[in-house]
Amino acid sequence: MKAMILAAGVGSRLDPLTRNLPKPMVPIVNKPVMEHIVELLARNGFSKIMVNLHYLGDQIENYFGDGSRWGVKIHYSKEDRLWGDAGSVKRCEQFFDSTFIVIGGDDLADMDLRRLVKQHREHKALCTIALSLVDDPTEYGIVLINERGKITRFLEKPKGEIIFSNTANTGVYVLEPEIFDLIPKGTFYGFGNDVFPLLLEQKCRFYGCLTSSYWRDVGNLKQYQETHSDALQGRVNVKFPLPEVKKYVWMGSNVAIDPTAEIGYPVVIGNNCRIEKNAKVLANSVLGDNCVVEEDAVVQESILWSGARVMKHTMLERCVVGTECQVKSNAAVFDGVIVDPARG
User: Fold this and answer.
1) Phi, psi (5° rounding) for residue 127?
2) 188 plus 157 within the same structural domain
3) Is 171 exposed, middle or buried (0-12, 13-18, 19+ CB in 10 A)?
4) Contact 6, 79 (CB under 8 A)
5) N or C: the chain end with fewer CB closer than 10 Å?
6) Among candidate residues 209, 232, 255, the one where a domain is terminated
7) 210, 232, 254: which is the final residue of a domain?
8) Full DSSP string of 189-239
């Protein structure tokens, strides 16, 4: 089966982390979030994948190449400007010749995509959306479905008293090629704002499949941190890139930990890291490759990207530290994002 990963967006809600990194390349437990999606697709039998690129797209193409490392074949659609999610899929119309899936390159999920496709086919649907219950519906499209699973109402990112449901569109769609008849060529076009209202208006076979599987949009800093916590706590089935050396401690090779240092759990410590005298790496922390936690520094509930250094007598809590950044000595930082403006 074929799939399309949407990977062209700017990722402004994760700024400043995405100033020099496309959002699909933002690491979740030391792997780009899009890599987790590629692995999900491969596990579910999707062997041919189209990826649309725009913002810093070369980084995505350079990392994933032809996809052979994951047992899939990846093709790329390079966009000169943003076309909207439906407009981007329309530009790849010739690639899809049967039932296919569309999924976001900045989502983390462990859905049973085969079940989703099976239900789509049983309903003889033109479009099926994977649905999830959410606490804050204002960030998503919301739907009402009848007892047969048919969608009877859809509203993109509702506000205030308009909210009529907490059943949210996950951005995972199963589609038939006939959907292209509803998407105009050469124009910005969205599924939520344009295609789905048209499906309802024309009374097309438009269904929703409520899933209890894990799904989260890694949309903003809070969601990014929560996604890490979910992965570390085992709430989502993802493949860690490092071995679990003891329960809830994943560690790479060539890691130097001083005997006086304290390592909590769950934690991830990448390759070639150094944790110095009396330093502490405590619960729900992730260290990328080549990180250094200097003497008497404390890292708790924080994410360090590769090459980050936390200097002496410094405390970090609920922070994200960008690639190659240094956090100066004798600082205490809570709920912060630390990036090097020179790299932006």
Assistant:
1) -145, 135
2) yes
3) buried
4) no
5) C
6) 232
7) 232
8) --IIIIIHHHHHHTT--EEEEE--S-EEE--SHHHHHHHHHHHHTTSS---
- Taking each helix axis from N to C end, the angle separating 57-64 and 33-43, rounded to the nearest 10 degrees, works out to 50
Query: Taking the complete model, does pTM exceed 0.85, yes or no?
Result: yes
Instruction: Compute the distance between CA of residue 320 and CA of residue 186 in angstroms, rounded to an integer.
Output: 39
Q: How many angstroms separate the Cα of 240 from the Cα of each of 61, 85, 330? A: 22, 29, 33
| Residue 307 within a domain | yes
* Sheet of strand 292-293: strand arrangement: 256-257, 274-275, 292-293, 309-310, 326-327
Same domain, 95 and 155: yes
Residue 16 preceded by cis peptide, ω within 30: yes
Task: Classify the C-alpha dihedral 204-205-209-215 as positive or negative.
Answer: negative
Structure tokens at 166: 């907490």
How far, in Å, CA of 106 to CA of 315, rounded? 30
pLDDT value of residue 343 = 47
Residue with tokens 């509203």: 155
**Model pLDDT, residue 161:** 66
Phi first, then psi: give them for residue 130, nearest 5 degrees. Answer: -75, 130
CA 262 to chain centre: 31
HSE-up (13 A, CA, CB side) for residue 3 = 30
**Rounded CA separation 206/263 (Å):** 50
Alpha-carbon torsion angle 321, 323, 325, 331, nearest 10? 10
For residues 279 and 300, membership in a common domain is answered with yes
311-332: b (≥16 Cβ within 10 Å) or e: bbebbbbbbbbbbebbbeeeee
What CATH number does residue 213 fall under? 3.90.550.10
Tokens of 101: 């899936």
**Segments in the chain below pLDDT 70:** 160-161, 341-344
Rounded to an integer, what distance in angstroms lies between the CA atom of residue 284 and that of residue 248? Answer: 10
Cα separation, 80 vs 215, in Å, equals 30
